[in-house]
Protein: Amino acid ABC transporter ATP-binding protein
Organism: Amycolatopsis ultiminotia
Amino acid sequence: MNDPAVEIRGVHKLYGALHVLHEVDLTVAPAQVVCLIGPSGSGKSTLLRCINNLEKIQAGTILVDGQLVGYRRSGPDLVETTHRETCRARQHIGMVFQRFNLFHHLTVLQNLIEAPTHVQRVPKGEAIERARTMLARVGLADKQANYPAQLSGGQQQRVAIARALCMRPKLMLFDEPTSALDPELVGEVLDVLRDLADQAMTMLVVTHEIGFARQVADRVVFMDQGRIVEQGTPAQVLDDPRHERTRRFLERVG
Ligand code: ADP
Ligand code: MG
């Protein structure tokens, strides 16, 4: 049996006295696409950030590809990972945010080779090859010499996705990747996500695009007030929700 790509057990996250995640359990199998939906403030971004070890959790465990996130076993104890170990683990996880977060003083190609050459020590020629392959994959082969400001929001977001893919991640985390886009640009970004899903990328996607979740997700997870309220197939959760809170949320966004 393969390890789950992500295994979250009994996770609690607090910001000071604010209890943001309560007893969260979630498993993502390799090549699965899980869409995470829920109202603003329900803890979706926090959960993604915990998986990528951008936030420390206060209880529970998170494993990515069978490896503990943020901690290392030392005999019977768990010790926090060093900054170095954290950075190494993070290389296998690609994250794309609502805002594109490109380096504005660098061209598209320079954006794409930055992390592979500096973090993974990939030779420059090989990094450029990878970058061109990924740009072609997101339909932007002709934009490598452009600066981010010369691209539309949808194109910038596709560059951000290509940049994450250049690190050859095993897992991609998307936090509302289309929420900052003009409506007419949403489709081109969702098409890239759909394509990644078809190519068996493991993905956890926070989204309000219910149509996309219905089409692409293997599983939909509904969160509210820091808890997973229900999860199941898109048909179960989106078309026949068991919980009143899920129903009310879907009426608002649908
Ligand atoms: P969502 O992504 O579902 O909108 P978030 O994970 O961003 O929800 O936020 C969950 C809760 O945690 C909210 O109440 C938010 O205000 C709070 N929160 C998020 N980040 C921080 C932070 N860095 N410090 C303190 N509170 C935070
Ligand atoms: Mg959020």
